[in-house]
Each structure stands twice: as C-alpha cells, then as structure tokens.
Amino acid sequence: MISTAIRVARVGSAAELAAAALMVLGFPALMLAALVPSVPAFAAAAAVTYVADHYLHRKGSYLVNRLSKVRAGLSIRFLIRQLLLILLLARLSLADELIYYGAIACFIAFYGLQAPHGALVTLIRNRRRMPVATRNVDLASRIRIPDAPPRPLLHRSAEKMLHLDLFAVTGIVIAAGLETPVPGFLGIGITTALAVAYVAALVPFVRGTRIPPGAETVLAAVDDWLAEYRPETVLYFSGSRDSAYQVNMWLDTMEQLDTRPLIILRERAILNNLAPTTVPVICVPGGVHLMNMDLSTVRVALYAANVGKNIHLLRVPTMKHVFIGHGDSDKLASVNPYSKVYDEVWTAGRAGRDRYAIADVGVRDDDIVEVGRPQLAPIRTWQGTPAGPVPTVLYAPTWEGWDDNPGNTSILLAGENIVRRLVTADPPVRVLYKPHPFTGTRSPLAKAAHQRITALVTQAAAERAADPRFTADPAAQNAARAELARIEARLAEPAGGAEKGDEAEATRDGIVDVARHEEAARLRAEWNDAYWRSFPAWEHRVITGAEPRLYDCFNVSDAMVSDISSVVSDFIASGKPYAVTDSAGLGAEEFKRQNTAVRAAVILSNSAAELDVLLAAVRDPAADTLAEDRKELKQYLLGPDEPKSIVQFNTAVANLALKAEARNVGQASRIAAADADELADAMPAQRVTATGDTDLSAG
Q: Which pTM does this prediction carry?
C-alpha cells in the first residue's frame, strides 16, 4: 500500500511520502489552530510545515515542484503561513496592539523585498551566462571572466530568502504566547535586517566589473582560440541530460585520435554531465552562434546521435560528416533513414553493413566503413571457465523504448522469471542485475517490474547471507570498504583545489590537469577492484548508477542475459556465453533471422525455461555447444581483432579527411578559374599598333 502511495505521489521514498503528507496536513492544522485560537498548536503546526517543506526541497521532490503548477508554490505557502499568523493574532484579540500592525508591516515589507531580490538573482545569472561554455579551452588569456558570486548567495536563493521570515514568525508566536511584544519586534527586526542585507549583498554583482564580457567579445575569443588550436576532427552531440552516456562512451576514443580533436555540445545539461576528458569541449546552445563559429580547419565531423540539431553543423560543406552512433545492435534505430544525410556511416563490422543493405533505407554500401568498436578495448576475453567458485550471471535488460512493443525489453514479461530462476539455480550462481538507466522513465509498468525485480534480488541476497553454506571474509571486505572510502575521498577532491562557482567560472578555470586526470583514471581502476572485493563473491547485487561501469560488470561475469540492444553486441567481444530474450514470442528461428546478434545466443522464452542451457555452458566447457559460433559472430559483428580498432578508426578519420581536403582544393580551383574568366571578360579589348605599342582606346 505504501509503495502504491509512493508511486501515485511520485515521491522517492517513504520518508518523502511522510513529509509530503505532513506538509499538506500542516496548513489546515495551522488554520484550525489560528481559529481556536491555540498558540502551542499553531507553533507545532508551523514547525511541521517548515521542516517538511525544507526536507522536500532538499530532496528535489517531484510533488513540491508540481505544487507551483496548481498555484501552491513556495512563495504562496509562506504567504499563507504568515496570513494565518495574522489571523491568530486577531483571534487572540491583539488586533489593536502594536505587534499586530508590526507583523503586517513586516510581512508587507518582506514581500516587497522579494521583487528586487528575485530581479537581482535573475539579472546576475543572465549576465553571467555566456553564449558558450567550455572545458580545456584557454579563454582566460583572451577575455576577463570575473569570479562568480559566493555560492550561498545564489544557490537555492528564493528558498533562503523566504526562510528569513522564520525569525519574525517565531518572535511573533512567542510574543503571542507570553503576551509581551518584545520577542515579536526583535524577530521582526532580525527578519527585516537580514532581508535588506541579502538584497544589498547582491547589488555589487550586477556591476560591469563583476560580469563577463558580451556575446560578441566571447565568441570572438572562441574564434581566436580555434584559429590557434586548429581542430581537425569534431565530435558533435545534442540530446537530453539522460543521454550524456552516448557522448561519454566516445571520450577515450577522441583522446586517442591522431588528429587534433574537439567536442561540440549543444546543451548545457550535457556539459554538466560530461565525464572528465582532456579533449577541448565547446558547448554552443545557440544555433546561430554555432553556424557563425570558425570551424574552417575541421575536416571530419562525427555524430553519435541522430537529432534535429545536427543540421546546424551538417550545413558546413568544408568537412565530411560521419554517423558513428552510440552502440551497434539490431534495433531499428541502428538503421535510421536519417543516416542518409551523412557522407559516411561507420559500423563496427560486416553486420552493420549488411544491416543497412537489408533495411534499404537509402544508405549506399560505398558510404559504409567498418572501423570496429574502440570502446570495447577494456573488455577481457573469457578463459573458458568461471572465475570463481560461484559463477556470475549478469542480467542487463534494455529499457521499454518509446512504444509498447513487447520485444523492446524483457523487463515486463520475462524479467521476474529470469531472476527467479537464476537466484534459485542449483548449483548456485550469483546474479548481477544492471538495468538500463532509462528503465521506467516512460512506462509505469516497466518501473513497477523493475522494482519487483530489485526486491527479488535483494531478498535472495539476504537469504543467501543467512545460508551457512556461504561464508564471507569480513576482515578482507572491511579492508576493501576502507580502501573504497579512501579512493572516493580522493576522487571527490576538486582538481583545482576548490569547487567552481558557476558556469562562467568553470569555463575560465576548466583546463584539465593532465596529471590529475591520469591519477583519476588509475584511482577509478583501483576503485573498481576494491568494489568487487568489498562484498562476497557469491552475493547477489543490484547495480545502478555510473559505477561500476557496464564493461566492469562484463569482466566479472561468466555469462549474460539481455535483450536486443548494443549491450549484446558489446558482450560478444568477451566471447562468453549469453542469452537473449524473445519477449515478442517470434520463435527461436525467426528471432535469429531478424536479429544478427542472437545467432550464437541461447534464446529465452518469457518463461526463461531455457536458462539451464546457458548455465550448463558456463559450468562445463564441454556443454558449450555455441563457443565456435560466438567466435565467428564476434568477427562478423565487431570486425577482426587486428589491426586494433583504434587503429582502424584513426585510419578511417585520415582517409575521410583527405577526401574533405581534396573537395576543398577542387572547389578553390574552380572558384579561382571562374574568377579568372570573369576578369578576362571584364577587361577591355587591346589593339597593337604598327609601331608595336598597345592601343588601349579600342573598345
């Protein structure tokens, strides 16, 4: 029942649900206490509403955010509480006392200060928001970007300003209870003084010396940097905040390019969720600003997603445009007709080429280049036997997609059956459940199924921990946890020694410390090792969030169960047994015919009865009848092991850059020839006289 209420109210936990209920009930209680009147009851109800409201805001509760849509936003709630306090004073027969008029004057003045406060905060934020935001781009030597205002001034500023009424409300309530106006006037004075001081503290930051230069100056500085850096290969990306993983997966590849790389982003939310990198990054939200940017040295543009904003760069003819995608699978998204707009489409292996040919969406075979998957380098190859005494099976389903096609995900129809069979398998296996980060974002049914699967895994883990057959090494696990804490503390330290104030300041100071970046990479590897040692090797686990990464889960697993997605294609690089769920009920033969990546997989029905075949292959190499099929499929899907994928990728970049340069030289030659012809036609005809002189009077 509680879980249903949590889902309906769209809050994150039972504590949030309780806080929401207390806040909603607190205001009627305030009104009742004011009407009775009862000072103690009013004080208690006011305290509950303050605390519950503050807690929900700190948690970023969806319910609180929605209240503003029904005219019950933060300012309204504070105003109602203040009006009810005035009502309490009137009901206590204090309407003729100075404290009554003092309270009214205080709250009017307090709300009068809200307007300049809000205007100043908005003005400061707008003036400090530059047309571009960057990382690893030296703008500090070209333009002056002043320090950001202290974080306490702008962070949650409206909430802080409104909470300054706490002193006045507390003082007035105490004055009403003690029947003396002194505490009330003291509280009124403190609230008024702090509100005025807060507004005054913001004023200096709207002066010209405290704000960055205008858009034209900033864009000119960016062009100056581009002229000096001369980028050659661009990774372009646009998308929602949740899609940042699609560009993050290409960062290591960009760092390994033989050409000078640049990353162009279109949304600030993506920049805020971008993983650390040494590659220069420019975030350009405005389409006009991007189209006016000097990218004349770029010869190759790489696109990780098919989105409408790609058109702003696709219009540039001096560079060649390539779709590289964000995964290789048999999903329809992998053969999007939009891909026709690119000069080339790069796929991992032969399968991608064949996929476009079968789909017949207008992408020519000559425009497809096989480059492997450079991101798969961290995936370790299976040695043929489980790494530990208890084999590990990874369940990594994809999300529900944008429609209700049952073949999108196994979460809905098969997820619980899969997990239930795995956690009750005999001999036992360990289950790692790592759902897609988008799971449940569109479909409430998928979210509910995910929650049930999580509960199954959690319950099975608790039962296994109580089973005497499974023993742990507490000392080793405690040591690993201590190591995790040490590493996390070091990783949490800001690279520059202090947290950046705002986007403009981060742009100014956002030059990566290469030594610190390399140390962070080493620490993340150490963190991953310590993480897996921090709990028993037989413990079931639900894994969400960015860490540990999917490929880290691949490396500790002996087999995987998944759906049609790029996860399957990537896992094939390990050579380990895997199973894919036929959630749509096509039948094994038809399912394999339609989906290349499952041709070496154990095909599961929604009952997951076929899991025994997968588990047998994990436990006994002799029972692994699909081992050779997986080797052949790996090369078909991902290309040959040699040369390394990053070498193939760099070669493809170089070849396409030559094509772009040849095109540009050809265009320049044609323009020069056309100009010469126009000049010849415009010149007057010349005649040579008998004496050999030129007669310029002709014509």
A: 0.79
Give percent of the chain above pLDDT 90.
66
Q: How far apart are CA 353 and CA 349, in angstroms?
A: 7
Contact (CB, 8 A) for 225 and 139: yes
Residue 400 neighbours by CB under 8 Å, 6+ apart: 408, 409, 411, 412, 438, 439, 440, 442, 443, 445, 446
Whether 430 shows a pLDDT value over 70: the answer reads: yes
Q: Is 281 helix (H, G, I), strand (E, B) or coil?
A: strand
For 6, the token pair is 């949590």
Euclidean distance between CA atoms 588 and 604, whole angstroms: 8
Which DSSP letter does residue 602 get? E
Task: For residue 146, report the phi and psi dihedrals to the nearest 5 degrees.
Answer: -70, 165
Question: 687 phi and psi, to 5 degrees?
Answer: -125, 135
DSSP 130-188: -S-EEES---TTTS--PPPPPHHHHTTHHHHHHHTHHHHHHHHHHHHHHT-SHHHHHHH
Location of structure tokens 């396409």 = 656
Q: Which amino acid, residue 374?
A: P
> Which one, of 446, 393, 464, 437, lies nearest residue 547 by Cα?
437
Q: How far apart are CA 587 and CA 695, in angstroms?
A: 91
Give tens-digit pLDDT for 194-219: 999 999 999 999 987 889 999 999 99
The CA-based diameter of the chain, rounded to the nearest angstrom, is 124
Q: In this structure, what is the dihedral angle of CA atoms 122, 128, 131, 135, given to the nearest 10 degrees? A: -130
78, two tokens: 């504070």
Q: Helix (H, G, I), strand (E, B), or coil: what is residue 535? A: coil
